[in-house]
Amino acid sequence: MRVGVLTGGGDCPGLNAVIRGVVRKGVKTYGYEFVGFRDGWRGPLENVTMPLGVDQVRGILPRGGTILGSSRTNPFKIDGGVEKIKDSLAANGVDALIAIGGEDTLGVATKLADLGVNVVGVPKTIDNDLSGTDFTFGFDTAVNIAMEAIDRLHTTAESHHRVLVVEVMGRHAGWIALHAGLAGGANVVLIPEQPFDIEKVCALVESRFETRYSPIIVVSEGAVPAEGGDMTLQSGELDAFGHVRLGGIGDRLASEIEHRTGKEARAVVLGHVQRGGTPTAFDRWLATRFGLQAITAVHDKDYGKMVALRGTEIVRVPLIEGTGELKLVSPEEYAEAEVFFG
User: Fold this and answer.
1) Considering only CA atoms, which of 132, 64, 57 is closest in space to residue 314?
2) Where are the alpha helices (DSSP H) in 262-338?
3) 21 is an annotated ligand-binding site residue
4) Do 222 and 157 fall into the same domain?
5) pLDDT (tens digit, 9 = 90+) per residue, 111-143?
6) Are residues 233 and 284 in the same domain?
7) Residues 164 and 239 in one domain
8) Which residues pair with 2 in a beta bridge?
9) Last residue of some domain: 221, 247, 276?
10) Could you confirm whether 127 is annotated as catalytic?
11) Are residues 204 and 234 in contact, defined by beta-carbon separation less than 8 angstroms?
12) Hey, where's the site called Important for catalytic activity on this chain (predicted)?
């Protein structure tokens, strides 16, 4: 049996650990052969491949990024895209495909499975916003990177008696901001699920300055003010999945706080630092287990499924469970963090 593997969407710590788990078990336990498709869905679309075997996966466990490359290619936006993918799989003798990615990559996989392609999905996103799984790999690494940044910013904020606004990733879901903010002792956490009141934020800033400590505000890139208006910069250009580029909420929020309170405020945008570099132990563990279970699902011919973490077990769920709707922070979970605001 020959199995294709691809990684799509934004790069993420742990992708190489999945690839390694898939290949090592596939070769050792099942005697399978593998072909790597380069740069997400562009690989099978344009028949761009690379050798993928035990030699290729040696030493990649601690490496960030993906040895297969990635892209945000959407084959359903390309004329004849589905037929090209099927032809490419057939030309390479591929019997089944393992797609590793987030909402968009697995959304394509879901549609292809409905069209008869033998595909198994592995959920990946630092945003942790895929339903069907308790956690996605990459999230823990992103949270730890953001937490360390917040830890370091506390002392410089206090030294200069200034507000520091830390902008983290999170287009629609505030999981990184919530977890990193709680772990890092932030004084305010702003997330997309809970539109914020700028006056209340400023009041919390003033309250914090009544102590000898300076405020740290953590904000998701997709957070919005309750009173309306757009504080998030958008490039205006859409990617192949219809997403605009977000960013700028940190700078705008810092400017507004400084204007309203008279306190010096600076913004720190963590950006792609959150999803680069070596994965944490948890993400290596989770990604490896996902890879091992994904190739077992292929062996069982259990196609149209996605591996998922439920408690401590890796289970299989229909692909649509992971992509049908986003997993968002609930009001109850956000309320827990509000105890520490101010």
Assistant:
1) 132
2) 281-299, 319-323, 331-338
3) no
4) yes
5) 999 999 999 999 999 999 999 999 999 999 999
6) no
7) yes
8) 33
9) 276
10) yes
11) no
12) 124
67 is an annotated ligand-binding site residue: no
CA–CA separation, 288 vs 129, rounded Å?
20
pTM of the complete model:
0.91
User: Is 10 one of the annotated binding-site residues?
Assistant: yes
Q: Which of 39, 127, 251, 283 is catalytic?
A: 127
Domain identity same for 121 and 178? no
Q: What pLDDT digit, counting tens, does each position of 26-56 carry? A: 999 999 999 999 999 999 999 999 999 999 9
Eight-class DSSP state of 225 = B
Give the C-alpha distances (Å, rounded to integers) separating 111 from 77, 108, 138, 323: 13, 5, 25, 11
Question: pLDDT digits over 267-323, tens only?
Answer: 999 999 998 999 999 999 999 999 999 999 999 999 999 999 999 999 999 999 988
Q: Give the range of the structural domain holding residue 290, as residue numbers without chain letter.
A: 2-137+279-323
Among 130, 123, 105, 166, which residue's Cα sits nearest to residue 328?
130
Consult the annotation and say whether 162 binds a ligand.
yes
Asked if residue 75 is part of any domain, the answer here is yes
The verdict on 123 and 205 lying in the same domain is no
**Same domain flag for 272 and 283:** no
170 is in an annotated binding site: yes
Enclosing H/E stretch for 84: helix 81-91
Residue at a domain's end among 276, 302, 334: 276
74/128 same-domain check: yes
Are residues 205 and 215 in contact, defined by beta-carbon separation less than 8 angstroms?
A: yes
Residue 272 and residue 178 share a domain: yes
Tokens of 341: 């605001």
Instruction: Please name the amino acid found at residue 250.
Output: G
